[in-house]
């Protein structure tokens, strides 16, 4: 398991005047991101489970952004539905993998990304209304094969 709990994030101002305020919890800067991974190996099969979590954030870009507040219920200057006034919701996805090694140098795999078919929330700050760091396509399947020659 890996987790990042952020307490402080600052930026160096472009004009060289010093560091700006703390942006943790504001748009694009969640306080918590975590990944849990578990593998199970039995003979020549390996299964993997990944659970990815991204914490909630405010719609405002920083403490200076007084337009995109819960009281105004806006994000990127766009009115939001009441259930999204507080900010971008937390987001969790689950991925599964299965690999099989039928020969010494051959591995065949099947991966399912976003097993629960989680769809991204509406995000007016993002491209076409969706956050860039989320899976826009829902559940995805991938087959793989690799052979090592040495």
UniProtKB/TrEMBL annotation:
This protein's name: TonB dependent receptor
Alphabetical UniProt keywords: Cell outer membrane, Membrane, Receptor, Signal, TonB box, Transmembrane, Transmembrane beta strand, Transport
Boundaries of every TonB-dependent receptor-like beta-barrel domain copy: 11-115
One of the record's GO cellular component terms: cell outer membrane
Gene3D superfamilies: TonB-dependent receptor, beta-barrel domain (2.40.170.20)
PROSITE patterns: TONB_DEPENDENT_REC_3 (PS52016)
Domain of life: Bacteria
UniProt family annotation: Belongs to the TonB-dependent receptor family.
GO molecular function: siderophore uptake transmembrane transporter activity
SUPFAM superfamilies per UniProt: Porins (SSF56935)
Membrane topology annotation: Multi-pass membrane protein
GO biological process: siderophore transmembrane transport
Compartments in which it is found: Cell outer membrane
